[in-house]
């Protein structure tokens, strides 16, 4: 490919680059423009051997090889939207069976064929999950739900006690017509377990029946799966071991909320499948995920030294940057490469929505440090229900703001990608998600890291578990009523972390009046604690 250099000062060169690098698919109504990224012909030539290996690796993953060797697991989220490529008939049949089960369940709930224990029609959903188990469903609902269609969905995605209380208050008047959904792949993640216990207590305190109003989405054989089946919950959907949380949006995790708000899940899956097919093209010039991965690689010098700023110019995509934060940062933020070398890879992601961001942080993006690249997302088709005033609609202004911001950044020498969708619907959302999923996979191959493990997340879970165990030890120790310093408590418990003991006690005393202290919090070594 003969490519004019990236130029701020030569519009004709920039037009030539635009024409050379623009990717478009007519069927999807989808454009990708990476011409305003600092990519040269030599960059493309240099990356071609790596891309060849990446394409081969992607084929291996889709054919069923172990994509996550650290956990000895296959990586199969691409099979979810095209079961015919699954490595065996059993997996293929299970995928199709699950899709049909989700569709039927969603239809029956919306039509009132499945009713509450009080023989009422369900009106609301209380969704309990953490990370990808909530971000994917939240994106689905925010992006696709239409007013007055389907059920109202409330999300409990944290263990903040004030937040839990507020969320439960939202369903106080409709608790008996609320469907409770608990999502936990392993069934042992603390946050959804805590949320479930609080929601269950709330429902049962109101005279409701948890098993008759609850649904589980979990891995077959997990503790949650066994509990749901033993207690005969209303329904259980599978979350296979070969689907990671951050790539679970085309599993029951994303399909069930879509079905419950009245969306045709086959259309959503079709969009993802069509983009998957386009991104299997081994000619990188015709492969949008390969082009986007090249742009990420070159912008960050293969080290992720530039952040990614997501600027979708539609309210329905407001949470898309949060969704991409987990998908990209959890997948690419790795200390070690596949050879065990310390590489400290990753791309930081942040953003909100246009044109809001133009009044929030575009000033720094244009005039501040050059440590990022922007990703604009544009929707061409506007709603027909907005009146044109003075021959202009709000969409005309929104498009102008996007183009103006894009141009202002280019004039300042700042790089950007532009994604344009002809219209926004369930098909285009599926395609957009698949584009980024496959870009993450290809980029991970370019930098030789495992995109499918999460050792940092597991380390955080382990550390949190240790703190909770330490708290139990402290409570047990202080139960005798004796006055003890932090040093004494430390010696009688783990003997490893006085600072953690200080933090635990500070929180314990603020929330439990039966515990007392002597001394000043500003002088930790002088503090003494006891139980009444």
Q: Unreliable runs, pLDDT <50, ≥5 residues?
A: none
Radius of gyration computed on alpha carbons: 26 Å
The count of helical stretches stands at 18
What is the CATH fold-level name of the largest domain?
A: Rossmann fold
Tell me the count of domains: 3
Largest sheet: 6 strands, mixed
Q: Strand pairing plus helix content: what structural class?
A: alpha/beta
For the record, what CATH class of the largest domain applies?
Answer: Alpha Beta
What is the residue-averaged pLDDT?
95
Instruction: Bin the helical content.
Output: 40-55%
Report the strand count: 14
Percent of sequence in beta strands: 5-15%
Strand order of the main beta sheet, please?
Answer: 1-2-11-10-8-9
- The CATH homologous superfamily of the largest domain corresponds to Glucose-6-phosphate isomerase like protein, domain 1
CATH architecture of the largest domain: 3-Layer(aba) Sandwich
Distance between the termini: 78 Å
Shape: globular
Task: Provide a quick synopsis of the model.
The chain is of the alpha/beta class and 532 residues long.
Describe the structure.
There is one protein chain. The chain is an alpha/beta fold and 532 residues long. The protein has 18 helices and 14 strands. It has a six-stranded mixed sheet, with helices on both faces. The longest helix is centred in the C-terminal third of the chain and has 24 residues, at 455-478.
Question: What is the topology?
Answer:
Layout: H1 11-21, E1 23-25, E2 30-33, H2 41-63, H3 89-111, E3 124-128, H4 132-144, E4 152-156, H5 161-170, E5 178-183, H6 190-205, H7 210-213, E6 214-218, H8 223-230, E7 235-238, H9 252-260, H10 265-278, H11 288-299, E8 307-312, H12 320-332, E9 349-351, H13 362-367, E10 372-379, H14 394-411, E11 415-421, H15 426-446, H16 455-478, E12 484-485, H17 486-492, H18 498-511, E13 515-518, E14 528-531
Parallel strand pairs: 3-4, 3-5, 5-6, 6-7, 8-9, 8-10, 10-11
Antiparallel strand pairs: 1-2, 2-11, 12-14, 13-14
Helix pairs in contact: 2-15, 3-9, 4-9, 4-12, 10-15, 11-15, 12-15, 16-18
């Amino acid at each position: 490919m003969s490519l004019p250099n990236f130029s701020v000062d030569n519009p004709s060169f920039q037009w030539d680059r635009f024409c050379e690098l623009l990717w478009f698919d007519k069927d999807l109504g989808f454009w990708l423009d990476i011409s305003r990224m600092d990519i040269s012909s030599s960059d493309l030539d240099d990356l071609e051997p790596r891309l060849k290996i990446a394409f081969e690796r992607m084929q291996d993953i889709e054919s069923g090889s172990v994509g996550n060797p650290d956990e000895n697991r296959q990586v199969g989220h691409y099979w979810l939207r095209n079961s015919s490529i699954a490595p065996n008939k059993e997996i293929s049949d299970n995928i199709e069976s699950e899709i049909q089960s989700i569709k039927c369940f969603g239809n029956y709930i919306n039509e009132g064929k499945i009713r509450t224990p009080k023989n009422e029609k369900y009106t609301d959903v209380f969704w309990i999950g953490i990370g990808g188990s909530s971000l994917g469903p939240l994106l689905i609902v925010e992006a696709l739900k239409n007013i007055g269609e389907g059920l109202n969905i409330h999300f409990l995605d944290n263990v903040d006690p004030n937040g839990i209380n507020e969320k439960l208050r939202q369903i106080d008047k409709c608790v008996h017509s609320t469907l409770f959904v608990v999502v936990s792949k392993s069934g042992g993640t603390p946050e959804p377990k805590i949320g479930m216990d609080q929601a269950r207590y709330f429902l049962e305190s109101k005279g409701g029946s948890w098993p008759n109003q609850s649904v589980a989405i979990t891995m077959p054989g997990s503790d949650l799966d066994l509990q749901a089946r033993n207690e005969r919950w209303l329904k259980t959907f599978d979350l296979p071991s070969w689907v990671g949380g951050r790539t679970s949006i085309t599993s029951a995790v994303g399909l069930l909320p879509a079905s419950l708000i009245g969306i045709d899940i086959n259309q959503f899956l079709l969009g993802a499948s069509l983009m998957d097919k386009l991104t299997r093209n081994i000619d990188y010039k015709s492969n949008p995920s390969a082009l986007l991965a090249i742009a990420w690689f070159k912008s960050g010098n293969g080290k992720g030294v530039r952040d990614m700023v997501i600027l979708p110019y539609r309210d329905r995509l407001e949470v898309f940057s949060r969704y991409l934060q987990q998908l990209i940062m959890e997948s690419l933020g790795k200390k070690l490469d596949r050879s065990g070398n310390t590489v400290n890879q990753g791309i930081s992601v942040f953003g909100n929505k246009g044109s809001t961001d133009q009044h929030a942080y575009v000033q720094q993006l244009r005039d501040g440090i050059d440590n990022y690249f922007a990703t604009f997302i544009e929707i061409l088709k506007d709603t027909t229900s907005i009146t044109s005033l003075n021959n202009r609609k709000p969409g005309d202004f929104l498009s102008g703001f996007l183009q103006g911001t894009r141009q202002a950044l280019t004039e300042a020498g700042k790089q950007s990608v532009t994604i344009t969708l002809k219209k926004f619907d369930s098909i285009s959302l599926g395609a957009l998600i698949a584009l980024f999923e496959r870009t993450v996979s290809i980029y991970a191959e370019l930098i030789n890291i495992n995109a499918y493990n999460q050792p940092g997340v597991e380390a955080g879970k382990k550390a949190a578990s240790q703190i909770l165990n330490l708290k139990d030890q402290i409570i047990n120790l202080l139960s005798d009523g004796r006055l003890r310093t932090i040093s004494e408590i430390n010696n009688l418990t783990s003997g490893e972390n006085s600072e953690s003991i200080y933090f635990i006690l500070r929180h314990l005393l603020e929330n439990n009046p039966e515990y007392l202290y002597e001394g000043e919090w500003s002088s930790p070594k002088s503090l003494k604690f006891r139980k009444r």
